[in-house]
Hints:
160 residues, mainly alpha
Amino acid sequence: MIAWVLWVVGGLSCLLIAYEDIRSRTVSVVWLVAFGLAGLGFQLAYSQPLWDIAWNLVLLGFIIGIILLFYRLKGQKVMDRALGWGDVVMLIGLAMWFDTAGFLGFYVVSTLLISFIFLTLRAFKRIPKDYPIPLAGFMAIMWLIYFPLNRFLFPNFLVL
């Protein structure tokens, strides 16, 4: 029962994150923290080992480190341009919801889908070329689709 309440809190948080990020490119820290804490509670309610969250955070740190290094080598600044702090906090919150295989699967699949959708919208000139991807908002939408499928309907759905 508590797991369902936490899932609802996560879902409502994601709806608000998606709305704010896509609409105004800013996200309230309250929704991001609520999402992450609900994920931590969800993992604890299912008696999942906290090692999964630790490994997810290590994996996320590695991914963000590679991105920062790539942009530094190009001589460009990434934070607050291509990747915002809200995006980073959203990714940390997402790390709380999954075991490591699920997180990796979610990250890869959602990143590829978001890139495809965004590039398609740009190709059809539905959004300006210089408009940055609202990553936190799109990740929230992907979580709303992926997480129920992975956890409740089809265990290990799209896990690599």
